[in-house]
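Following up on my earlier thread - several people asked me to post the actual chain instead of describing it. Fair enough. Here it is, all 121 residues.
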Amino acid sequence: MRVAALLLLSLALLAPAHAAGDVSCTTNREGRIVCPPPDGRCLSDRYGDVLCSNAGGGILANRYGDLVCGPGNCVRDQRGDVFCSNQPHGAVAIDRYGAAACAGTCVPASASACVRPQPQR
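Reply from S.P.:
Thanks for posting it. Predicted structure:
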């Protein structure tokens, strides 16, 4: 029991340090490593293609499984629509009615706001 508690404590202490240095690089369907733009995030779609958000932006899969991005953090509402804050790093949440609530204004996420990263050399 004591060993398990020590292990959990050490993992909790290491997690923030690991997350701060993690740039979330991933491999695309050709097996090449791609990394997000600075301060961005990447995800793979159902075909193995990698798409990324811009700096300070968010990326999520919509209700159809397509990756969509926005200028700030994003959230999926009760209907599965993805909304993002119009501010880079802008906070988002779901209110008690299941609707998106955003810092600044909520804007619909779109596939055209995503960027396709270049593979590392």
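The helical segments are 2-21. That should answer part of your original question.
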